[in-house]
């Protein structure tokens, strides 16, 4: 059985046409992307010339921004319409990105079979809270990462604060996201993520939270991981 929730896939298929609209359903991602791109670029020692895998790439917002910094990017996702939009948008912008409709588990099998080179950088942003088995994703990413590579996961903490800000605030009050985009019980506590990473032979070198001011529409990073957070990981030495 594939590690895919068809209800989650359907959510993003329905929103696909607005993927590249900076004021559409994915406005929060457009606002967040410069911050997370800068973080990944800095912590990976610069993306230029790196081989990068973007897991759960959707319509390609992060994939494109990494390619523009000189990375060789592969983006994988299980949606159909968002991937089609990602391919079209990258072609219109003269970018060469290898988009594939596949799960990370199947992608790993294919890469292993052809003895393909592993990745310098792997990103998996806002995806773990949308799959049935997050540990399987983490283990597959670890297997695809070079010995000196860097892996990034971002997700949402399962706290009342996150429920208030992400579901009530963003979906119902500010209407920045369609209602039903997130399910609270699927949010992931940092301790749970760290436990899975430990099982996958990964060590967390840094974990930071990112926060949003609806008045200025600006995101920023700090040590508070009580809501949205991003973890940087490397192979356990």
TrEMBL record:
This protein's record includes keyword RNA-binding: no
Amino-acid positions noted as binding S-adenosyl-L-methionine in the UniProt annotation, renumbered to this chain: 36, 56, 77, 125
Example of a GO biological process term: methylation
Pathway: Cofactor biosynthesis; ubiquinone biosynthesis
EC number: 2.1.1.222, 2.1.1.64
Entry's Gene Ontology molecular function annotations: 2-polyprenyl-6-hydroxyphenol methylase activity; 3-demethylubiquinol 3-O-methyltransferase activity; polyprenyldihydroxybenzoate methyltransferase activity
Record key words, sorted: Methyltransferase, S-adenosyl-L-methionine, Transferase, Ubiquinone biosynthesis
Annotated catalysed reactions: a 3-demethylubiquinol + S-adenosyl-L-methionine = a ubiquinol + S-adenosyl-L-homocysteine + H(+); a 3-(all-trans-polyprenyl)benzene-1,2-diol + S-adenosyl-L-methionine = a 2-methoxy-6-(all-trans-polyprenyl)phenol + S-adenosyl-L-homocysteine + H(+)
InterPro entries noted in UniProt: SAM-dependent_MTases_sf, UbiG_MeTrfase
UniProt similarity note: Belongs to the methyltransferase superfamily. UbiG/COQ3 family.
Matches recorded under PANTHER family: METHYLTRANSFERASE, UBIQUINONE BIOSYNTHESIS O-METHYLTRANSFERASE, MITOCHONDRIAL
Role of this protein: O-methyltransferase that catalyzes the 2 O-methylation steps in the ubiquinone biosynthetic pathway.
Record-given protein name: Ubiquinone biosynthesis O-methyltransferase
Species name: Ursidibacter maritimus
């Amino acid at each position: 059985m594939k590690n895919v929730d068809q209800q989650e896939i359907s959510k993003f298929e329905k929103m696909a046409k607005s993927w590249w609209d900076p004021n559409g359903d994915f406005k929060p991602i457009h606002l967040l992307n410069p911050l997370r791109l800068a973080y990944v670029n800095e912590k990976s020692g610069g993306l230029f010339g790196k081989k990068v895998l973007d897991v759960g790439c959707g319509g390609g917002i992060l994939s494109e921004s990494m390619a523009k910094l000189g990375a060789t990017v592969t983006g994988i996702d299980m949606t159909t319409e968002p991937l089609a939009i990602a391919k079209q948008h990258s072609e219109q912008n003269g970018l060469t990105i290898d988009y594939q409709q596949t799960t990370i588990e199947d992608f790993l099998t294919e890469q292993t079979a052809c003895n393909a080179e592993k990745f310098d950088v792997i990103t998996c942003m806002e995806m773990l809270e949308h799959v049935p088995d997050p540990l399987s994703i983490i283990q597959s990413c670890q297997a695809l990462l070079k010995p000196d590579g860097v892996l990034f996961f971002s997700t949402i903490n399962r706290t009342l604060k996150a429920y208030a800000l992400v579901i009530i605030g963003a979906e119902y009050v500010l209407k920045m996201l369609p209602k039903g985009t997130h399910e609270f019980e699927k949010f992931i506590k940092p301790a749970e993520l760290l436990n899975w990473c430990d099982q996958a032979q990964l060590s967390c070198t840094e974990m930071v939270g990112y926060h949003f001011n609806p008045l200025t529409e600006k995101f920023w990073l700090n040590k508070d991981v009580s809501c949205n957070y991003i973890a940087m990981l490397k192979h356990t030495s």
